[in-house]
Amino acid sequence: MPVGTQATVKGLSPGALRATGTDMVLANTYHLMLRPGAERIATLGGLHKFMSWPHPILTDSGGFQVMSLAALRKVEEGGVTFRSHLDGAMVALSPERAIEVQKLLGSDIVMQLDECLKLPAARSEIERAMRLSLAWAERSKRAFEGAAPQQALFGIVQGGNDVALRRESACALVSIGFAGYAIGGLAVGEPQEVMLRLIEEVAPLLSSDRPRYLMGVGTPADIVEAVARGVDLFDCVLPTRNGRHGLAFTQFGPLNLKNGRYADDARPIDAQSTCAAARDYSRAYLHHLVKANEMLGAILLTTVNVAYYQSLMAQARAAIASGQFEHFRAQIRRSWASAATCESG
Amino acid sequence: MPVGTQATVKGLSPGALRATGTDMVLANTYHLMLRPGAERIATLGGLHKFMSWPHPILTDSGGFQVMSLAALRKVEEGGVTFRSHLDGAMVALSPERAIEVQKLLGSDIVMQLDECLKLPAARSEIERAMRLSLAWAERSKRAFEGAAPQQALFGIVQGGNDVALRRESACALVSIGFAGYAIGGLAVGEPQEVMLRLIEEVAPLLSSDRPRYLMGVGTPADIVEAVARGVDLFDCVLPTRNGRHGLAFTQFGPLNLKNGRYADDARPIDAQSTCAAARDYSRAYLHHLVKANEMLGAILLTTVNVAYYQSLMAQARAAIASGQFEHFRAQIRRSWASAATCESG
Questions:
Q1: Which of B59, B274, B299, B316 lies in the 20 to 30 Å Cα band around A344?
Q2: Is the ipTM reported for this complex over the cut 0.90?
């Protein structure tokens, strides 16, 4: 899922987004409840109509942005209060209100409110946040009753980098019972091998007939390794944010179009791509647009990157279906050995 | 012609631009000679290929930007030297170099170098600049010899707000003989009636079998009034710049989407428009995008505005052909009575 924070994937019209192969987008409850407001979007016919996207939408619960954007936040058993980063107003967000907001938005996949910690954190703090997120999961499920039949609620596994807490969280969520399960609080600075080991422990505990969603991940290599461990669904700002900063994702690895070596390069980004933006413009032109800070550079590179991510997922699905996944995985590992050049999500 | 300063009409891909009804774009010699460089664009196959626009391109001569953007400029008989606004390098631009640059770019319509004055200015200063521009016109025509057969050279009428100087400039240019004639140095702050009176004096002196081009104009009302006085061709940043600032041009007049009155307005900009961007999104969504400073707001409003300008010109052509021009002119005057809300070009 490309990230459409404020009811738009930055730089792409719905038609342009659809043409990248995108089926589902993520939108941010935190941002939309502050501006333009969930009640307003509901009055205007819901989020799908508001952003002219008649395809699936997942909304997060707002928990992650409260942690990363809001000032003066205070987490209590009842919920979280915080100061809006837009106008300084004090806002309350409880598990019940997060569900209510997502009902108003009318998203297809609704996420429970959870508490995301910054790592590293003390084990006692990680345990407290995990138990609070579990209690909020139960309350979210109750609050979700009466939602529209096309809406589905996902629970979120927390527990930081502690395997035992992660396993406890996963099993407790499965007992409560959700339409799908997310693994939250990863890709927050820990090494890739730590993240992958935690996924390895947690994924098998989550019902195999329900989607497993790894939140906020990641590089192409991260994604393919997580798929190898049983994850189905991802969201990430890497393709869009890096596109705005001049970095292209390609089947051959990353290209940094800011680099002066491309100033006279008449070749397209990838002559074999199915994405027109990767075939129809020279690297020299894209370099010029990026250096000149022109919107079209951000637009074309975002298009290239989202199309690359969608084709990566399509290839992963095809490789699994044909029994060629290990071959595909090795190929991605080689192309993205230099993935450290990507900005983190 | 929408303005594609740096080899891109801000926010629009070539396909999106084409879909607005655009046939020809303007690109800026001053900007492109400084970055990425005319020789580089020539090596890459010329400007059409560089910006993936296989349709007509007009390039200005750089004179206007030297006046408005460059520091420490010095105008002499031979040409102008100035400090680049990008890196402070001293750059020389002569009539011959301006033609050479445009030959390298490979534009379809090439403009002579002229000296643009800021008004108000003393009559002696206006006269000096007009005579210098005339001398440069002759030198431009000589330098243009040997250009590719598909390239055409236009001369530029100067003379400030002085009718006698304007007439002298126009007649002298026609004696030299150009493929088309531009009227420069207007819409630089003078009242609309002054501009229109000068056009009225000058246009009849310019060969009626050659295109007449009014540079840098203007509002829909300005354009239709200039068409009424015999002008054929226009360029203007109003549709693109205003689009980026939240203003929509419509057949009913301007809409300022920044205005809070649109926050709950479920109507599209113009349900009757042939432009999808004007029909497929609510004013409430556009208001949200503009307030949230999202690229998509600029993209959609630029699309709406360029499509409106192209439809305005198409309607003017149709009205002339059917003998209904006076009716059309009155209608545009009514819709754009409030044109003062537009930002000047």
A1: B299
A2: yes
